[in-house]
Fold each of these.
Amino acid sequence: MLALIALLLFSFSQSATSSPTRCGSFALRGSAVNAIVTNTTFYRANDTVAITNPFSSIDVNNLPAFCRVELSITTNTTANSTAHADVWLPESWNGRFLGFGNGGFGGGVNVADLGFVAVTEGFAGMSTDTGHLSEAVDGSWAGPHNDNAIVDWSWRALHLSVVAGKEVVRQYYGKPHHKAYYLGCSTGGRQGLKEAQRFPDDFDGIVVGSPANWMAHLQPWSIHVSLEIMPVNSSRFIPAATWAEVIHPEVLKQCDILDGLADGILNDPRKCSSRPETLACRPGQNTSTCLNLDQIHAIHQIFSTYFETNQTFIFNGYYPGGEVGYPQGLVGAVPFPIPQDYYRFFVINDTTWTMDLLNDTIIRLGDSIDPGTMDVIDPDLTAFIGPSRKGKILQYVGWADELISVGNSIHFYETVHAFMQANTHLNIDDSYRLFTVPGMTHCLGGFGANAFGGSGQAAADMPSSSFDAQHDILSAMIEWVEKDVAPEILTAIYWNNNNVSQGVGFTRPLCKYPQMLVFTGGEPSRATSFRCM
Ligand SMILES: *[C@@H]1O[C@H](CO)[C@@H](O)[C@H](O)[C@H]1NC(C)=O
Ligand SMILES: *[C@@H]1O[C@H](CO)[C@@H](O)[C@H](O)[C@H]1NC(C)=O
Ligand SMILES: *[C@@H]1O[C@H](CO)[C@@H](O)[C@H](O)[C@H]1NC(C)=O
Ligand SMILES: *[C@@H]1O[C@H](CO)[C@@H](O)[C@H](O)[C@H]1NC(C)=O
Ligand SMILES: *[C@@H]1O[C@H](CO)[C@@H](O)[C@H](O)[C@H]1NC(C)=O
Ligand SMILES: *[C@@H]1O[C@H](CO)[C@@H](O)[C@H](O)[C@H]1NC(C)=O
Ligand SMILES: *[C@@H]1O[C@H](CO)[C@@H](O)[C@H](O)[C@H]1NC(C)=O
Ligand SMILES: *[C@@H]1O[C@H](CO)[C@@H](O)[C@H](O)[C@H]1NC(C)=O
Ligand SMILES: *[C@@H]1O[C@H](CO)[C@@H](O)[C@H](O)[C@H]1NC(C)=O
Ligand SMILES: *[C@@H]1O[C@H](CO)[C@@H](O)[C@H](O)[C@H]1NC(C)=O
């Protein structure tokens, strides 16, 4: 009875208090979570929201009104380690909780997605800094032996932030959220899959892009790819201009028409077995218009599945069609820094180790240590998608991914599929679907229809064309969870020059794996001219 009166009084005081006041005086009551509010800020509609940290930034003046609550969360009492999280609470709330992921080894609240996705669409949004501050490509914070920071980045900070964030939502609005969703790409994809397996109650629907879920294999593969063309002054190095102006046009010449339309986009690169031999230099030919034999060998290695010496599978290779973007990934003149940091600061604990020292023993060491239990390779998703929970997972990946082979997403999907079929009576298609995106680079961008509401897309001026379930993958997830309408096909948009301000380029369907996009005739700029088969 007393509790009821208190609740009524509380609800009354809430509606009687203005939002800026309620925000300004907000503090967490009770001891349900090991977190304290460190700051609150109320932003009126169209106020300037300018926030920067080493991982993410936002600077806009067109958001609806919201309350920003900053939290400090104790992640290990003994070590007195903490993580920070932001909860952004829109004045006009849709009743849902939305958690976001991070990227690379980055530490910092994902303020970009909090603003461009959560507040813009009316979700109560939450993001953690993962327990440290750093840029995405910097792993030096991890060590050697900074064990609590490694565990926090791997999974602990996110889970504790979800629990604390939900409590903030409940106390701020005076009622709990009704469904909880997640959106993340790359490391954010890994974090989402980890949540599904380790904390299946945290979310009802998890949307993951190109997950870095198998770090112990992704990192040696990245090094392997770099070493195929390194050093820059060797005969095997391939300049970016050669990738873009020599190799890519030849791949298109050999394969572009296989999907029915010669438009510069390979809709199913698995069908393309292009041969770089056709580009071998003739005696006396200008060498920037052709390939020498070492470069041809390197290309074969880079586009092949990578096995270690004893034929153990490590990782899939690059797929044809993304050559223009690959030098911005792993085959540029400067090696991608994350793999070396992974071994230096998480696995070997030797800050002088260099990537040319990679060997099979080191690969196995990464496998056996699995620092912070960061990897997500267990194919058993029963806890999340089983009958007692009925969680949903939507995964997406670009065929032109320059940092994590698209083959990794397919490999994980197929591994889960096979395991669940062999060990349960569940139909994987009822709860886990993968959508492939022709011509999209890592998480966003590239040259295909690549905007559909994925993590980071709106913040990069590539928003979905509308927030309905056909055009926006998060809305598609909501329909699946709340109305049991499963997404069969999505429609993505290419904004001219990947910038919404330059207008519509074209629209295309995104197909559910293993279906592939085929041109069926008509106006190539319209999604209706294509089918998934
Ligand atoms: C709280 O946030 C406001 C607005 O960003 C800022 O001006 C102020 O310095 C912050 N206070 C603390 C204690 O961090
Ligand atoms: C915010 O800006 C938009 C677009 O300029 C405008 O339509 C809206 O009225 C503004 N809202 C407020 C509360 O100022
Ligand atoms: C917490 O930190 C202490 C001190 O670093 C460590 O011994 C302990 O294993 C940590 N506990 C967990 C659960 O990580
Ligand atoms: C824990 O760290 C905070 C600062 O992060 C400090 O204020 C506090 O005194 C520390 N507590 C203990 C028990 O060391
Ligand atoms: C390197 O440090 C991490 C974190 O303390 C530890 O898990 C790992 O076992 C260490 N590696 C070796 C080879 O000792
Ligand atoms: C490449 O450059 C390194 C120094 O940067 C030099 O030691 C090496 O001899 C050069 N290799 C070739 C093939 O020119
Ligand atoms: C070789 O080709 C490149 C690229 O087409 C061009 O820039 C360069 O001038 C050519 N070199 C010679 C010696 O013709
Ligand atoms: C592999 O690399 C490690 C670290 O650089 C080194 O200690 C070890 O001897 C190497 N093993 C082999 C078989 O080369
Ligand atoms: C590869 O297999 C051979 C023969 O079984 C074994 O002697 C060797 O240790 C293996 N290499 C590695 C890196 O495990
Ligand atoms: C998109 O275009 C606008 C207007 O030209 C420009 O201000 C903005 O920086 C562009 N966005 C990106 C990500 O380049």
Amino acid sequence: MNFQARQKRFGLDYDACFDRALAQLHDERRYRVFADLERLAGRFPHAIWHCPQGPREVVIWCSNDYLGMAQHPKVVGALVDAATRMGTGAGGTRNIAGTNHPLIELEHELASLHGKEAALVFTSGYVSNETGISTIAKLLPNCLLLSDALNHNSMIEGVRKAGTDKVIWRHNDVGHLEQLLRAADPDRPKLILCESLYSMDGDVAPLHKICDLAERYGALTYVDEVHAVGMYGAHGGGITERDGAASRVDIIEGTLAKAFGCLGGYFAAKANLIDAVRSYAPGFIFTTALPPAICAAATAAIRHLKTSQWERDRHQDRAARLKSVLHTARLPVMPSDTHIVPVHVGDPEKCKQASDLLLTEHGIYIQPINYPTVPRGQERLRITPSPYHDDALIDRLAEAMIEVWKRTGLA
Ligand SMILES: *Cc1c(COP(=O)(O)O)cnc(C)c1O
């Protein structure tokens, strides 16, 4: 019996469910189309856009490959070399296939990067948060989770899966966090969850104040450094390293997929915590480990950024220059303390339209950021300059944005 006949016979309209869900997104102007792009190693941030009219060269202005490490010769070289020597896949979960040696080296490198006893690698930053937070919480009987209101979806899912009590503190509001800690049973284990650098607004958490509260109320601290590792601190250890707070934060979580240019997630902490999560976390145990070549490439990126300051300096310099040029052009740059350069639009349709015009008319790719990634009314273009966006590219971006702002009635 084919699909249509089955629907009819049982009076179950499966098609209607999918179609209705899609229609709703179209109605709310939230339906997403992914650009078909081909990044060009050695020519970052240039890429080929495979549009309906054929291939076309464009400049990418919104990549989370923040430092261009995905094309760095040392990183690509390490990947090719490891794949040639060890093949592609890991061959199974670590329970079944053992651990490939490059993954052991990677975990040592990560533990050392954050000054922790041990680190554990997952297949993505998303998985490390989701399975990590829920597993740590389950290991602490009657744990209370205290989560910042703007935490990433992967942390929210980790909190949900933990199935224990949670309270949400207003974003970066340590006064509110203290109120919630004070109200909680002093005998109860507590885990404070935040990000160090919030990627939509580019603001930074007051980590020392949060650690002060953790000490005062006996809580553990878990900090997502996904948008900071590689980019901040003298060795790329993130905001915790920059602010001298790494030893005060109990669990530092990060990704290998953004500034390190590869794939995978991890956290670093005390050895017994890592060993317990390794032994209990379903999202770690029941999935195939990262390929050895990816591990070798990530290790090469981390090692390079531990000693090379050039990428970090140039990254900050580019962000400062871009902010200043856009300000001068009277474009509504939102305040940001970091390398993230958000430009306010405040309307989902215009945001999509501006993004489309930049791509089709100017060969500039910046994807629109709409609800639910940001609240309604705060739609924006989120620009992430890299060390490889030179003055000429910045000036061309500003001119293109001025033109698009006029055309869409935003100016
Ligand atoms: C991207 C992101 C993650 C997930 O990391 P991936 O390695 O891409 O899965 C986790 N936390 C934050 C804040 C992120 O922006």
Amino acid sequence: MNPLYESMATSVFERMSLAAAARGAINLGQGFPDFGWEPAMLAEAARALTGGSNQYAPSRGLPVLREAVAAHYGRHFGQTLTADQLCVTSGATEAIAAALLATVSPGDEVIVMTPAYDAYAPLVRRAGGAVREVTLRPPGWRIDRDALQAAVTPRTRAIILNNPHNPTGRLFDRDELAAVAAVAVAHDLIVIADEVWEHVLHDGQRFTPIATLPGMAARTIKCGSAGKIFSLTGWKIGWLVAAPELAALAARAHQFLTFASAPNLQAAVAYGLNEGDGWLDPMRVRFARARNRLAAGLTETGYAVLPSASTYFLCVDLAASGIVLDDEAFAALALDQAGVAVIPLSPFAEVAPPRHLIRLCFAKQDATIDAGVAALRRARELAA
Ligand SMILES: *Cc1c(COP(=O)(O)O)cnc(C)c1O
């Protein structure tokens, strides 16, 4: 078999979602919301589709969207960004790919903190780089400066920082961001900041972009996603933000990945960013309510639920719930015998993968959450 096939395995999200659809199972696996998007944005997209352009957009993105993104980050985080620091991409996934292609040369090493979003390692390798894992450990999942420092070698080129963090739901604190910045500055590293969850925060927390820390603006490539901000994951509109020269380099990589993204959806996202700050708080309230409902239902059923401060995911500790099956075996049982898809955490790491944790998505309507809890109750009984 072609070894490339092995190095780019089917994503665990695709694997679980396809299996869930084939069996008609409840899908608490893949992270897409089934409630709460803005009808005004859909109307704007429809208007742009029928009345606007349906031809190639400029490769760097519609000026109106680049300006809207810059203004958005100015309002929310006090950043002063110009349009030449931005490139619109087909989702944050493409922004991450472009950032890696722009920075990693064959033989370079990239530090990835695991458990990590499953796209990073295959993309680093296809850019010719090698992955150096730094293991975060439950239940705290803290970034340890010494561990990060110890992973740096003369070949290290970049650190991928995902904050807020998927799959753990952690929002890293000031000290942890300062540790990443200190290591990056000391060794002249690029930080690829996957900050797609920047607005999906619970319990009144505040997010700090790592680019705003001293010394970081010049060395950060930030990846953002309208899919996550507006619960419109299927649109795949994202962007990268960096210092002008670095942004130009990543934009060149983007030219040969997708070249440009759907202009009508870009126009609707620009509308959403310019009109939509008032939508963020109600979204957070809905997500926090859904998180509390799922966590309460699971706790009542005897599951040990880990805290989730951000994203629309929470993790369950199977071992602490009295379940001896590992994560993959439990996920298979839950799907086959109880009719509910969950995500095992072990595919999110290669060195020391956690095998006793699963991730659940709570961005679902009450009825879906309740049906999911009932199915997980059955799975627990079957696993006992
Ligand atoms: C969802 C997600 C992405 C991908 O974002 P898209 O805009 O859908 O491409 C990237 N990173 C993390 C951590 C995510 O959760």
